[in-house]
Design brief:
It is built from 8 helices and 2 strands, in the order αααββααααα. With 145 residues, it is mainly α. The protein has a single domain (5-136), classed as Winged helix-like DNA-binding domain superfamily/Winged helix DNA-binding domain (Arc Repressor Mutant, subunit A, Orthogonal Bundle), CATH 1.10.10. The protein has a two-stranded antiparallel ribbon. A hairpin with a 5-residue loop joins strand 1 (57-59) and strand 2. Helix 1 (5-22) packs across helix 3 (40-52), helix 1 (5-22) crosses helix 5 (78-86) and helix 2 packs across helix 3.
């Protein structure tokens, strides 16, 4: 597992919101939680992070829900979602989870992770929410585990 559980749910929630925003529809926390198979309270906290980081918009009121503008889907990159939920630990943490691993005291995997991290950063910063949403148009069932 590369991302935390919260981050996985956050990515799936953002994609679900984007899919429905492309259809001009806002979605509720309960609907998102059901679709991505996540507890409602956990989903609400994750969506709060996405909203606070300007990744999705939360609209209050009877016709409210979560949405993302079409033009924002291109500028929202996967890296922004990961950073909002998991921070930058994916780029700096030890591959073996050791606390004292660094360039001066590397673990056996440290140098091998340099290329992997570089490629991961490229992928995360170049993949847009629009790309993810349109790539899943084949069927929403892929959002569930």
């Amino acid at each position: 597992m590369m991302f935390s559980k919260a981050c996985e749910y956050g990515i799936r929630a953002a994609v679900y919101i984007a899919l429905h925003s492309l259809e001009g529809r806002r979605v509720s926390v309960a609907e998102i939680a059901d679709e991505i198979d996540s507890p409602v309270a956990f989903t609400a906290k994750t969506l709060q992070l996405l909203t606070r980081n300007n990744i999705v918009k939360s609209i209050k009121g009877p016709n409210g829900g979560f949405e993302i503008e079409r033009e924002d889907m291109d500028s929202v990159k996967l890296s922004m979602i990961v950073k909002a939920i998991d921070g930058d630990q994916i780029y700096v943490g030890c591959g073996l989870g050791l606390k004292k691993c660094n360039a001066d005291q590397p673990c056996p995997l440290h140098d091998k992770f340099v290329d992997i991290r570089s490629n991961l950063r490229k992928m995360l910063t170049s993949t847009s929410l629009y790309e993810l949403a349109t790539g899943l148009e084949v069927g929403l069932t892929y959002l569930k585990r």
